[in-house]
Amino acid sequence: MKKIAILQSNYIPWKGYFHIIQKVDHFVFLDTAQYTTRDWRNRNRIKTPEGLKWLTVPTNGTQSMKINKVKIDNSTDWRKKHLKTFEKNYKKCRYFKQYFELLQNILMRKSWKNLSDLNQLLIKEITKMLCIKTTFSDSKELELLEGKNEKIISIIQQLSGDHYITGPAARSYIDENIFSLNDIKVEFIDYSYYPVYNQPWGKFTHNVSILDLFFCEGPDSPKFIWKK
Fold it and tell me: Given this model, what pLDDT does residue 227 score?
């Protein structure tokens, strides 16, 4: 059995994104998909004393563009702003320094021009930190068919997969009968059992960047994702 997952890249995603990566043998960034505005592609949330706060990478992205064609707008120093915001709100967390350095090194490595390039590198580096051995590919390297189900099936077949893992939101468009006819099993991941951890700033929430978990729990972070 070879398990495949296919998702658009997001900016420093939440822990559930990495749960999917951990469960599969091969993960495909679907960055040839249409860009969506006011979504997770170029932003994510963190905890602050005032509540949840969005950190947004400024881009030229419109819904007529593919994700991998979206350019980052570097007319403002958004990188330093994001780093200062993380530091302000998480510096008292036990593992802040250790994981902040990774983010700092990546963001300040160069003046990033392409959103997909930045997202994919951040995700791959975080995956290494979680000791996940999953193989990565980019959809631009593959032949893609039209149609949501047909496109996914074609990717899985090109990678010799027979098991597709995706999030619960995909139930709205996945036709399991078509996958079954192609000898592919579909599995919808369950995000409902994640335990809480010692998170700062008021009422606990799961739907924040995985860096929130890293800063709080450090090397024990996997216990709060896939190790029940």
Answer: 80
